[in-house]
Amino acid sequence: MSNTNLSWRVCIYLGRGLCSNCGDTVKKALSVRVHRCDHCGYTVDGDENATRNMLQRALVSLFQNKMLSYAYDCFFS
User: pTM score > 0.90 for this model?
Assistant: First the structure.
């Protein structure tokens, strides 16, 4: 099996403002290092929260691209 490198461009600020547990918007200054969601009570390091959000976006993007590729192959091959 060959190694495949995938990369996505993401805006790190988009990951900070959302709760990775419930998706609610959480407003906080960049100096705040802990993510605390008032909606669901989820508390985690702010960098971990942002990383989880970015990973989720990457996986959704990968899944959508795979499905589009599969659909294209089904209809046009």
Answer: no
